[in-house]
Amino acid sequence: MTSVEPTFAMIKAMDHGDALASLRDEFLLPEHTIYLNGNSLGALTKKSRERVSDVVDQQWGNKLVSSWNTHHWIDLPITTGEKIAPLLGAAPGQVICCDSVSVNLFKVLTACLALMPERHILLTETGNFPTDLYVAGGLQDLVTTERCKVEAVSSATLLSALKKEVAVLLLTQVNFRSGAKHDIQALTEAAHSHGILVVWDVSHSVGVMPLELDAWGVDFAIGCGYKYLNGGPGAPAFIYANKRHLNKLQQSLQGWMGHRAPFDFSADYHPADGVTRFLTGTPAILSLASLDAAMDVFAETEVAQIHQKSIALSSLFLNLVASTPCLKDFSLESPEQASARGSQLAYSHPQAYAICRALHGRGVIADFRSPDVIRFGFSPMLLRFEDIWNSVVALSEVMEKGLFEEPELHKKLKVT
Ligand SMILES: *Cc1c(COP(=O)(O)O)cnc(C)c1O
Q1: Which of 35, 106, 129, 298 is catalytic?
Q2: Per the residue annotation, which of 226, 240, 353, 385 is the catalytic one?
Q3: Where are the beta strands (DSSP E) in 112-196?
């Protein structure tokens, strides 16, 4: 690993030299907590809290229904989408913020099938995030395998599964469990060479590494608003649709908010221009406002810098674990090379669940993924290098003192 073992003084110096250090002040964090779970639920920003209370007290409380116009609630799916667009490398007019990733994926897949009437295979990988597989399976059941046959293959055999019957390749860039990262550009090129559309799920990437969806020629992408974007629990997700497909698109969850003129209340459906046709029902304004405000924190920095710090944080964690003898039973499930992974590290250990709970008791919040993995997520905007040091110290104490052996910690909670 490292040739020189870091000391706490060296760690403090890293914090001192950190150009992003002041971004931590944008967050409301509980005391005595090291939050290594921003990859699951991003932390609360001051901007979100302020905005949500204004939306509740003033916009909703005082102005009532008129706020749809006066406070531009009706435009929020687009305006928030435009704030997300730079993080995706997307020119204006291609991103909309609405619904959950699961629902958006269904809409995007139906649009892909409509664009590819001659092809019927939906190719994905077995290790994809389960909701992506479930949505694909549900679509297959709805339209029958003649129209949409899901083929899930291992990551290693993806390239050889590309063939002329495949309509769409659906992949997640950063694997939720291992953190292993696909090369979007290379896989998109390979798929396109077979005339296949690509849908990338960037839930675990957006906000923590640069994306260039336009330059990479990606057809569609979907992603999550409550992970590294810090939109809040259940914050709306987003859809990216490359402008070359806009205006030809037909998606099956047609609803009035995607209509060209919703307030004409016409009985016939005429889709709105552009990406707006991906809307279905009324936007969840409280959640959307929270995400919209949280996006303003990104305006203060460059995602390339966030990514650099993400690599520095995760590499430090990895090196500290590797050089701590009492942690030798943790086996790394993530790629060792930083460029091959997202902003998280996964370790398997037979006692992973109880260890995770014991860590929580010591103020270090990570999460457990079935069957035996602990995930540590690194949110560069709020974490300090000293937090990484202290979390490895806490993990060492949990192991040395056997703190995970307490029977109570072995009972699974509903959300892990
Ligand atoms: C978090 C996550 C989702 C979340 O889906 P929702 O429907 O918004 O709950 C989907 N896909 C991936 C890859 C994720 O990491």
Answers
A1: 129
A2: 226
A3: 121-125, 149-153, 166-172
